[in-house]
Amino acid sequence: MPADLSSISPEPGVAKPDPLLVVDGLRRSFGGLLAVHVEHLEIQRGAITALIGPNGAGKSTLFNVISGFDKPTEGRWSFAGKPVTGMAAHRIARGGLVRTFQLTRTLSRMTVLDNMRLAAPDQRGERLPFALLPPLWLAGERAITARADELLDRFRLSHLRDEYAGTLSGGQRKLLEMARALLTDPVMVLLDEPMSGVNPALAESLLEHLTGLRDEGMTVCFVEHDMDVVMGVSDWVVCMADGAVVAEGPPHTVAQNPAVIDAYLGARRGAPIAHETDEEPS
Ligand SMILES: Nc1ncnc2c1ncn2[C@@H]1O[C@H](COP(=O)(O)OP(=O)(O)OP(=O)(O)O)[C@@H](O)[C@H]1O
């Protein structure tokens, strides 16, 4: 069931009833450029939150920092009530917060199944006690492969299991990225533009996967530029501009928020926010 966030005041930094991720005073500078400065942000557990904003707003940088792939200049954040500031990405992932990445060229040269297996955080065979006890190691490997096959089946990629990932279409790659992220049974996934380059038929299926994950209790946060997608699946929308959260709220509220419209107009010089609406502009 979608979380009911309708009674929450749509303001930047507003408290949520059951926040899973809480960010405070987070700053990330690159030289003289302050790429991210988020005073306070809470992500509701069990909801789909879309992170929107024009190019260069700081969305990917925020994802990188909170997932442990980049270090903040200052600030702190907690996940599931525990401080995770400064932790390495693999420790944050082990705690249940996982970020997806686009398939690199190297991963394209591996099979779909090997891509999945590589996403397992704990390669037990490499740890001494397991390496000395082959039955334990093999059991671990078999469990990882079984889970990988289960997910490939769920994402309808089983028939491509032994193909090189580089032969997949754009949409199939996106499905594989999502499947990889789920191998560790995360509590929350951060998806960076899961729909980009995906044809309409597969986009529909990806959207169903997103809502399916949410309905199973997972917390989903995704960066998206297509406002029709954002309107279609999000329970809550956070808009960034120039590194800061400038607006947040339910999708229909955020789309009409002057701060959001300003952010896009300022960035694109006249190109309106790309959401089709029946209303005439006032
Ligand atoms: N490694 C880096 N070194 C220097 N500047 C960076 C680096 N990473 C990001 N930036 C800058 O930080 C700002 C925020 O970039 P970021 O990629 O987080 O934005 P974004 O909202 O994800 O944009 P997009 O929607 O285009 O992906 C931009 O001005 C970008 O040029």
Automatic annotation (TrEMBL):
Keywords: ATP-binding, Nucleotide-binding, Transport. InterPro entries: AAA+_ATPase (IPR003593), ABC_AA/LPS_Transport (IPR051120), ABC_transporter-like_ATP-bd (IPR003439), ABC_transporter-like_CS (IPR017871), BCA_ABC_TP_C (IPR032823), P-loop_NTPase (IPR027417). It holds the Pfam family BCA_ABC_TP_C. GO terms for cellular component: plasma membrane. This is Branched-chain amino acid transport system ATP-binding protein. One of its GO terms (molecular function) is ATP binding. SMART domains: AAA (SM00382).
